[in-house]
């Protein structure tokens, strides 16, 4: 068994190393991150998501790392990805065109229309 885990083991460069804990063996090791992923994304979407991630204390790289870990753990995406059925597809298409969309001046009016 290797040496006891102490606070010095937790000092590492966050941007270049991945901390791996092996408490059952009594030691910690690090692994370099050496693969780069590049993706194109709409600038507005990136800005909005970066703002949310900042509030969560995450970077885009950390978020991608989390996503990859979840995909590995679940052996698939950590959320449902489905093709909408015909009714949902038609409803979305009509909504985008502004057809059949109701507008309300207040929550109270919306609730009244819903019978709540």
How are the SSEs placed, and which strands pair?
Layout: E1 17-22, E2 27-32, H1 43-56, H2 60-74, H3 86-97, H4 107-114
Antiparallel strand pairs: 1-2
Low-confidence stretches: 1-16
Regarding CATH, which class of the domain at 36-80?
Answer: Mainly Alpha
Describe the biggest sheet? 2 strands, antiparallel
Q: What is the rounded distance between the termini? A: 65 Å
Helix count from the secondary structure assignment: 4
CATH fold topology of the domain at 36-80? Arc Repressor Mutant
Name given to the CATH architecture of the domain at 36-80: Orthogonal Bundle
Strand content: 5-15%
Radius of gyration: 23 Å
Order of strands side by side in the largest beta sheet? 1-2
The CATH homologous superfamily of the domain at 36-80 is termed: Met repressor-like
The SS-based structural class is mainly alpha
Give the rounded overall mean pLDDT: 80
> What sort of overall outline do the alpha carbons produce when their principal axes are compared?
elongated
Overall helicity: 40-55%
Give a count of the beta strands, DSSP E runs of length 2 or more. Answer: 2
Helix and strand sequence? EEHHHH
């Amino acid at each position: 068994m290797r040496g006891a885990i102490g606070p010095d083991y937790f000092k590492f460069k966050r941007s270049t190393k991945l901390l791996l804990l092996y408490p059952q063996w009594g030691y910690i090791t690090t692994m370099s991150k050496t693969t780069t992923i590049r993706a194109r994304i709409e600038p507005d979407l990136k800005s909005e998501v970066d703002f949310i991630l900042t509030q969560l204390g995450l970077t885009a790289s950390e978020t991608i790392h989390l996503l990859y870990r979840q995909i590995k753990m679940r052996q698939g995406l950590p959320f449902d990805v489905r093709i909408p059925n015909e009714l949902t597809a038609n409803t979305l298409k009509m909504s985008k065109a502004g057809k059949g969309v109701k507008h309300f001046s207040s929550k109270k009016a919306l609730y009244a229309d819903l019978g709540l």
